[in-house]
C-alpha cells in the first residue's frame, strides 16, 4: 500500500497552507498549532497507558491472586480499551466541533494523531458517529467485561464477543472509508510522511483488529463448547 | 423529528434540477429516470420477499417438522436477511459507481429507495463500506445461522449474536451519520415528502434494529444460561 506517497501534484504546489493537515485545502475551524512537543505528548499518552496497565495489574492480583496470566492480560486489555474509548475517544466525540483549537492534553494528542487522519478535525459524519458509538457502548461495556472476568460471570463470553466484534467492525469501517476516499475519490487524509500513516493510522488502530479478533474467536469457541456440553447432557431445552 | 420538512430556502429555488434527489445540487453521474412504475417496483420486491419467505417455510417444515414456531420464524428471518444482504445490498456494493444509470430491477429499486437517501447514488464512503461489510459478512453468515438453527448446532447462539450485533451497529451508524449531516452540517439526503423519509429511510431500516435486537438479547440470555449450568456442574474449566 503506497497510500501516503502518491500525492496529487497540484496539492504539493499550495504555498503556506494554514495548517499541516491533508488534504491541504481542507478547512479546519480555528486551528491553533500544538503548544507541547511531540515527545512530550507521546510520553504523556504512554505514561497514562502504563499507569492504567500497572494499576489494573496490582488490583487484579490482589482480588484474584490465582487468575491465569492470559486472563490477567485480558482484564488489563479491557480496562485500557475502556479507558481509551470512554475518556479519549469520548473527549473527541464531545468536542468534535472545536478540535482544531483545543490546547488541552487530549486536544493536542488528537491534533497530533490527526496528522495521519484529518477527518478528526473536519466534522466527518462517519468518524464522529463511530467514535460516539465506541465511547458510549464499547467504553462502559469494556469495564463490565473486565469485572465479569474477575468474578467469572456467566455473561462474560457473550459480552466479550459483543465488545470485540463492535471494536473490529468500527475499525474495519474506519480503515475502509478512508481507503475508499483515497483510491476511488482521490481524497487523502494522511500527511505524506510514511510514519504518520504506518505509525499512527495503521498501527494504532491495528491493535483493535488483532486483539479483539483473538478474544472474539476465544469467546465463540468457549460458547460453542458450553452449548455442546449442555446439549450432550440434555441439561436444558432453554439453551438450544 | 421534522427532518424532511425544513428545506433550506435557497435549495427550493433551483429550477429544473437534473434529478429528483436531495440535496438538489448533488451530482449523480449518468442519471436516468426509472422505466418501471413505483407500484411495479415495490410489487416485484414484495413478491421476491414473499417467495423467499414461503420457500423457506416449506423447506424448514419438511426438514424439521417439529420445530417451534418462533424458531421457524427466526430461520425465515435469517434467510430473508441473508438474501437481501447478499444479493440486493451486494448488488449496490458491486455497482456503486454507476447506480444512477442502471435500469435493472435492482438498479431501479435502489434509485427508488435513494429518494429517501441519495448517498446510494453519490459514492458515499460510509454507505458503501457499511453495505459491503453487510453483503460480505452478514449475508453469508445469515445463511449459516439459519442452517445452524435447523440442525441445533452449538455455535448457533454466538453466531446469531454476531450477525445481529453487526446488523444493529451498521444500522445505527447509517441513521446517525445522515442525522448528523442534516442537523449539524445542514445537508439533507431525503426528499421532503414525509413518506420517503418515514416509509423508506426510517421503517425499512428499523426492522434491522428491532428484530436483531430481540435475537441478540435471546442469544446473550441463552449463552449466559448455558455457562451458568456448565459452571454449576463444574463441567469444564475451558468454558470459564
Provide the descriptors you would attach to this structure in a database record.
transmembrane (chains A, B); transmembrane helix (chains A, B); 240 residues; lipid biosynthesis (chains A, B); lipid metabolism (chains A, B); 7 helices; homodimer; mainly alpha; disordered N terminus
Structural class call of chain A reads mainly alpha
Strand content of chain A is under 5%
Task: Tell me the overall shape of chain A.
Answer: globular
Chains forming the largest contact = A-B, 50 and 50 residues
> Total helix count of chain A?
7
Oligomeric assembly: homodimer
Q: Which regions of chain A contain 5 or more consecutive residues with pLDDT less than 50?
A: 1-16
Radius of gyration from the alpha-carbon trace of chain A, in angstroms:
21 Å
Distance between the termini of chain A: 46 Å
Q: What is the element string of chain A, with H for helices and E for strands?
A: HHHHHHH
Tell me roughly what share of residues is in helical segments of chain A.
55-70%
Number of E-type strands of chain A: 0
Largest sheet of chain A: none
Give the overall pLDDT of chain A as a whole number.
90
Family (chains A, B): Belongs to the EBP family.
Keywords (chains A, B): Isomerase, Lipid biosynthesis, Lipid metabolism, Membrane, Steroid biosynthesis, Steroid metabolism, Sterol biosynthesis, Sterol metabolism, Transmembrane, Transmembrane helix
Transmembrane segments (chains A, B): 40-60, 72-94, 125-151, 195-217
Protein name (chains A, B): EXPERA domain-containing protein
Amino acid at each position: 500500500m503506497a497510500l501516503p506517497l502518491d500525492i496529487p501534484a497540484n496539492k504539493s504546489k499550495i504555498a503556506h497552507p494554514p495548517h499541516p493537515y491533508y488534504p491541504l485545502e481542507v478547512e479546519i475551524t480555528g486551528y491553533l498549532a500544538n503548544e507541547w512537543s511531540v515527545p512530550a505528548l507521546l510520553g504523556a499518552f504512554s505514561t497514562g497507558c502504563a499507569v492504567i496497565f500497572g494499576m489494573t495489574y496490582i488490583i487484579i492480583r490482589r482480588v484474584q491472586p490465582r487468575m491465569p496470566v492470559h486472563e490477567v492480560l485480558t482484564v488489563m486489555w479491557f480496562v485500557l480499551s475502556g479507558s481509551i474509548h470512554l475518556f479519549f475517544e469520548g473527549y473527541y466525540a464531545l468536542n468534535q466541533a472545536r478540535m482544531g483549537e483545543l490546547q488541552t492534553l487530549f486536544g493536542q494528542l488528537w491534533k497530533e494523531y490527526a496528522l495521519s487522519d484529518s477527518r478528526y478535525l473536519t466534522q466527518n459524519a462517519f468518524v464522529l458517529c463511530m467514535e460516539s458509538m465506541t465511547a458510549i457502548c464499547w467504553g462502559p461495556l469494556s469495564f463490565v467485561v473486565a469485572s465479569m472476568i474477575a468474578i467469572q460471570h456467566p455473561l462474560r463470553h457473550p459480552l466479550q464477543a459483543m465488545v470485540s466484534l463492535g471494536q473490529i467492525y468500527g475499525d474495519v469501517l474506519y480503515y475502509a472509508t478512508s481507503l475508499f476516499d483515497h483510491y476511488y475519490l482521490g481524497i487523502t487524509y494522511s500527511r505524506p510522511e510514511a510514519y504518520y500513516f504506518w505509525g499512527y493510522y495503521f498501527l494504532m488502530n491495528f491493535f483493535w483488529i488483532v486483539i479483539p479478533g483473538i478474544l472474539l474467536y476465544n469467546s465463540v469457541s468457549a460458547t460453542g463448547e458450553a452449548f455442546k456440553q449442555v446439549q450432550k447432557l440434555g441439561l436444558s431445552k432453554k439453551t438450544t
